[in-house]
């Protein structure tokens, strides 16, 4: 009788891949976790309890078949494990690196709830797909047959690329338009290399291009091409622009030199460090933390990217101000721990009141307490009067989140319906908008969210487009019947 390969969580403890020592990782932008060895990946995968109701799967936005590919990994059947993983996730090696597993699959693992420590799902997912690339199991896109229909996708972030992959595999002709000179969106220019090394993204871009996806880069809709022109060239159009407009920071002195947007700061670093681009603002020090006292304002994953980037650039000190406490911050707790190990100081229950100097020399900080829960159930921040103090700063980075750009105005498309938050109105699961043949996916619909949700939206909408192309519903002809919710 074959030995049971699973249910080892009682006798085998939870382990992550080896994490590089903090002092060493402060000196570069390489990923901080080593790769699992084959034996260790199998051992950790074998801890899965194969429970009857896999909460890891139900709490994954993509509903990945996690127990199945864990069992295959534990059994040494890695190519099959990759095929199962790839079946539901366009970019499993990316999700394995940057998904907040502690809030999704791992945080809902049954054995975690019983006190045995969660299965290291993300690390195994990363290992499976990296092995697939190394072994040549990741095959080029080869549609069984070519179709005449064409889809234009505006935005080369995770949502747009996931849709492009799905549609191209079905033989649809796909063109992706993006304002930047490289495809990948925030995966290329927003997320630092120590979380996601750039070759991981570019090899997927290369795979898409080799499979027939056409990329039109350095192309901004409303400047280089009109939305109307894109609609005229394709049978359907997907809006996947993401959200790039930074939330503003009020208060006296907020316009001083040295107060910068997180997206500008991270983009400059990624360009200069990861691609060797000539970035004058980085070279001049405007968007470089070297030798500076840095204050980052915000508590999300973007703020964590900024503080950890500043450490690596050689800042003399890095402090993060957040208006709630550690328990209530939106960023990954794993990232907070990594930042603390690297030398970041967190000042909880604080918020900026104003700024001194121009160039900036300090932040006027007000202390906060948490009061009664608000309508969402979270305790509302309350200012403690008379608690102000000054925090010295040479560089202040605003990481307060992102909002949608005003697409109807920028694209001269007043009929493009948006919500009161500025996001595009689109059907849930199909991405259909009220404009014939126009769909929307990812953050431009949800607001700033996770890469894994953008992938989910891209795949769902691509499937809906295939159905609509079959029925003729995906028509961009003016005056065609607008998409409506199914009965």
From TrEMBL:
Q: Which UniProt keywords apply?
A: 4Fe-4S, Iron, Iron-sulfur, Metal-binding, Oxidoreductase
Instruction: Tell me the ranges covered by the FAD/NAD(P)-binding domain, including all copies.
Output: 151-458
Q: Where in the numbering of this chain does the Dihydroprymidine dehydrogenase domain appear?
A: 26-136
The record's listing under SUPFAM superfamilies reads:
alpha-helical ferredoxin, Nucleotide-binding domain
Q: Which Pfam families match?
A: Fer4_20, Pyr_redox_2
GO molecular function terms attached to this record? 4 iron, 4 sulfur cluster binding; metal ion binding; oxidoreductase activity
For this entry, the protein name equals: Glutamate synthase (NADPH) small subunit
- What lineage is this protein's organism placed in? Bacteria, Pseudomonadati, Pseudomonadota, Alphaproteobacteria, Rhodobacterales
InterPro entries to which the protein is assigned, alphabetical: DPD_II, FAD/NAD-bd_sf, FAD/NAD-binding_dom, GltD-like, Helical_ferredxn
Query: What PANTHER family does the record point to?
Result: GLUTAMATE SYNTHASE [NADPH] SMALL CHAIN, GLUTAMATE SYNTHASE [NADPH] SMALL CHAIN-RELATED
- NCBIfam families from the xrefs? gltD_gamma_fam
Q: Which domain of life is it from?
A: Bacteria
